[in-house]
Amino acid sequence: MKAAWYGENGGPEVLHYGDIPDPEVGPKTVLVRVEWISIEGGDLLNRIHAAPSSDHHIPGYQAAGIVEAVGNEVTRFKAGDRVVAFDWNGSHAEFFAVPEHYAYPVPEGMDLRQASIVPIAFGTAHDALFEYGGLKAGEFVLVQGAAGGVGLSAVQLAARAGAQVIGTASGEARLDRIRPLGLEHGIDYRNEDIAARCREITGGKGVDLVLDLAGGKGKDLLVKALRPHGRYSVIGAAEGTLPSFDFFELIRKAMQVTGISFGRDMHTPRVHQLLEDLFADVASGALVLPIEREFRLSEVREAHEFVATQHPFGRVVMRP
Ligand SMILES: NC(=O)c1ccc[n+]([C@@H]2O[C@H](COP(=O)([O-])OP(=O)(O)OC[C@H]3O[C@@H](n4cnc5c(N)ncnc54)[C@H](OP(=O)(O)O)[C@@H]3O)[C@@H](O)[C@H]2O)c1
């Protein structure tokens, strides 16, 4: 099959495209003929920071397509079914082999291009806000990286739950595009002081919950923006560098820091039901996630470069 792979960490230039053996189908495996690959923020983070599994490590968490074959112990899917598939790597390819519990049916009427971008963005946002973030109506939530895939999902889910949503993005024009989705207070992280703006917006109290999608040096300002006993969801590091927390920083505010790993929960019945509900909301138009641009998988370097440097609004997808 055709696939993209790398054998060392680095920028988009470490990516190669060409022929590679097809994945094997075990007894519990669903083999998907990929139609659309969603480039997830984590695909870039892994390429930079996570050691590749081999010289021909196929990256990528998520893709949608048609079931080509199933293992003899698979009960929920058959050849021809439309699914979105998740795994810790392997989506940047013509075929994506995943355990049955990481395959999700696509509702009738939803196209596979749209479906390919739903689970991780909306599911991660949901869990960081509610399942582990404990967000309640009336509370202030600060979404750092609000114009990305997880960020746009979080803004919508938090707003419809009655929270007051503060979000950051690079520039007023981007913030203006997020406002109709539920953003009440926009902060341009490039030239505004996030902590000062949050103090002003919350009447000096500080925000109740932070969703940190960017990591890096920005983390210090997010900690400052938080109220005492506030909650901080560590989700991503889209800025490219990994933050860490200081002992006194944690106890001074008695802050609750929660690491989010949506992938760890994606096999569970809870998440299967959650994704069914989120798919229904996307199908009805109650939730939206724009796709900024499409590439061919053969253009994988350009596609990753575009995501890393061109500030797409929402997602970028590729076709094998
Ligand atoms: N832990 C988990 O379970 C989990 C699940 C999904 C994703 N993630 C991680 O979450 C992060 C976001 O994922 P995604 O898919 O939403 O990525 P994405 O679509 O590429 O969006 C990333 C966003 O980060 C913003 N950003 C970049 N540098 C920033 C900075 N210095 N300060 C503030 N914002 C900055 C960008 O804003 P502008 O474009 O406006 O500059 C962009 O909108 C990634 O690191 C990903 O690995 C983690």
UniProtKB/TrEMBL annotation:
Q: Which Pfam families match?
A: ADH_N, ADH_zinc_N
Q: Kindly give the Gene3D superfamilies that the UniProt entry links to this protein.
A: Medium-chain alcohol dehydrogenases, catalytic domain, NAD(P)-binding Rossmann-like Domain
**InterPro entries, from UniProt?**
ADH-like_C (IPR013149), ADH-like_N (IPR013154), ER (IPR020843), GroES-like_sf (IPR011032), NAD(P)-bd_dom_sf (IPR036291), Zn-ADH-like_protein (IPR051397)
Q: Where in this chain does the record put each Enoyl reductase (ER) domain?
A: 10-318
Could you state a single Gene Ontology molecular function term?
A: oxidoreductase activity
Q: Which SUPFAM superfamilies match?
A: GroES-like, NAD(P)-binding Rossmann-fold domains
Coiled coil ranges (UniProt) are none
Q: What is this protein called?
A: NADP-dependent oxidoreductase
Native organism: Croceicoccus pelagius
Q: What is the lineage of its organism?
A: Bacteria, Pseudomonadati, Pseudomonadota, Alphaproteobacteria, Sphingomonadales
